């Protein structure tokens, strides 16, 4: 019996010895990720540039690793960062603690927080792995206006939440 096991083991070795090796050129040519891979978090924006995060802190409450810190603040007429009454003034995710479970995504009522396919989160400095709002916010596109700015004329916060506000600022119904 042991002889048969040894021959089977050598068979696997000989079978792989003559195959062409597969070389990945990772840093220069990173391969594609799986379609539904969940990597780094992203704070999303509405089509006109206002932030979707309303500072409710539900994501921080749902995080089992206590990796998220949110400090909400009130919007004013002079400075409006999101539709509604509040916005996330401070938003931090500590990737030294994050376990990538996605419970924060499920807890977000406005779909402000999603996960991207970015998987390169290694760093040589511990403080650089605490991502602030500046690194988490989705970039502005050419048709967006950087907040703070007023909501689209004639729209309400409900119009934003239902997706009725377009990039040109007009209410689309």
Automatic annotation (TrEMBL):
The record describes how the cofactor is bound as: Binds 2 [4Fe-4S] clusters per subunit.
Q: What does this protein do?
A: NDH-1 shuttles electrons from NADH, via FMN and iron-sulfur (Fe-S) centers, to quinones in the respiratory chain. The immediate electron acceptor for the enzyme in this species is believed to be ubiquinone. Couples the redox reaction to proton translocation (for every two electrons transferred, four hydrogen ions are translocated across the cytoplasmic membrane), and thus conserves the redox energy in a proton gradient.
Catalytic activity of the protein: a quinone + NADH + 5 H(+)(in) = a quinol + NAD(+) + 4 H(+)(out)
Q: What class of enzyme is it?
A: translocase
Is the keyword Repeat assigned to this protein?
yes
Species of origin reads Mycolicibacterium grossiae
Q: What family classification does the UniProt entry report for this protein? A: Belongs to the complex I 23 kDa subunit family.
Provide the alphabetized UniProt keywords: 4Fe-4S, Cell membrane, Iron, Iron-sulfur, Membrane, Metal-binding, NAD, Quinone, Repeat, Translocase, Ubiquinone
Q: Which gene encodes it?
A: nuoI
Show the PANTHER family listed in the entry: NADH DEHYDROGENASE [UBIQUINONE] IRON-SULFUR PROTEIN 8, MITOCHONDRIAL (PTHR10849:SF20), NADH DEHYDROGENASE UBIQUINONE IRON-SULFUR PROTEIN 8, MITOCHONDRIAL (PTHR10849)
Ranges of residues in domain 4Fe-4S ferredoxin-type: 43-73, 89-118
Annotated residues that bind [4Fe-4S] cluster 1 are located at 53, 56, 59, 108
Give a Gene Ontology cellular component term annotated to this protein: plasma membrane
Q: What's the source species' lineage?
A: Bacteria, Bacillati, Actinomycetota, Actinomycetes, Mycobacteriales
> Which biological processes are named by the entry's GO terms?
aerobic respiration
Q: Where in the cell is it found?
A: Cell membrane
- Assembly and oligomerization: NDH-1 is composed of 14 different subunits. Subunits NuoA, H, J, K, L, M, N constitute the membrane sector of the complex.
* Annotated positions binding [4Fe-4S] cluster 2: 63, 98, 101, 104
**Chain coiled-coil ranges:** none
Instruction: Classify the source by domain of life.
Output: Bacteria
Query: What is the protein name stated in its UniProt record?
Result: NADH-quinone oxidoreductase subunit I
UniProt topology in membrane: Peripheral membrane protein
EC number(s) on file? 7.1.1.-
């Amino acid at each position: 019996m042991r002889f048969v096991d040894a021959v089977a083991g050598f068979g696997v070795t000989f079978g792989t010895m003559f195959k062409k090796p597969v070389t990945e050129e990772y840093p220069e040519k990173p391969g594609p990720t799986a379609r539904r891979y969940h990597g780094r978090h992203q704070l999303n924006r509405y089509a006109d540039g206002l932030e979707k995060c309303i500072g409710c802190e539900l994501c921080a409450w749902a995080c089992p690793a206590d990796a998220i810190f949110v400090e909400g603040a009130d919007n004013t007429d002079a400075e409006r960062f999101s539709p509604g009454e509040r916005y996330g003034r401070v938003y931090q995710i500590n990737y030294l603690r994050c376990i990538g479970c996605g419970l924060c995504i499920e807890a977000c009522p406005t779909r402000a927080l999603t996960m991207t396919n970015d998987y390169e989160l290694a760093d040589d400095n511990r403080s650089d792995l605490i991502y602030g709002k500046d690194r988490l916010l989705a970039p502005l596109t050419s048709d967006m206006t950087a907040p703070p700015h007023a909501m689209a004329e004639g729209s309400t916060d409900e119009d934003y939440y239902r997706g009725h506000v377009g990039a040109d600022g007009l209410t689309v119904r």
